[in-house]
Design a protein that fits this description.
Layout (H helix, E strand, L loop, with lengths): L2 H37 L6 E2 L5 E6 L5 E6 L13 H10 L3 H4 L12 H8 L2 H10 L21
């Protein structure tokens, strides 16, 4: 790729990124308006299988928008050091083992890589860090240049 082609590629990517960002903001506004409108039609809500509800509106061309109001989700973890934990244990009583799984997990400390290198041999540290990592995809970010304005 020539330098000129690269410059054109970057310019096109930044322009498209800017346009998508603007369109996403518009979409967020439209979705918020649909949610506000749906709340005015609560009597028309349909109950969903999971205990939530849904309202459907039609567009001029036959398209539809479904506004879903999900039921509250069950938390995935109740930390044994949280205020909720003791309440859960008390309320569940003898059924606690039937209603909950007791799970032991490890959470890496802050500055895990540095701490690991300080605590273990180079070989063990390298292996431990490797198995505690997940793959990350490359990310592209943009900085837009100040637009040049014509002198009046």
């Amino acid at each position: 790729m020539t330098n000129a082609q690269l410059k054109n590629l970057v310019t096109e990517a930044v322009s498209l990124h800017r346009e998508i960002t603007e369109q996403n903001e518009r979409l967020k506004t439209l979705k918020a308006s649909l949610v506000r409108e749906a709340r005015l039609h609560e009597k028309e809500f349909t109950t969903t299988d999971n205990g939530g509800s849904r309202w459907t509106a039609s567009g001029a061309d036959g398209c539809i928008a479904r506004i879903n109001f999900p039921a509250p989700a069950i938390t995935s973890l109740i930390d044994s050091e949280s205020e909720t934990f003791d309440q859960v244990i008390a309320l569940a009583g003898e059924c606690v083992d039937r209603l909950f799984e007791s799970v032991y997990f490890l959470r890496p400390v802050a500055d895990f890589r540095e701490e690991t290198r300080d605590a273990l041999s180079a070989r063990d540290a390298r292996q431990l860090i490797e198995i505690c990592q997940t793959k990350a995809s490359p990310r592209v970010s943009f900085e837009t240049a100040e637009t040049k304005t014509a002198a009046a």
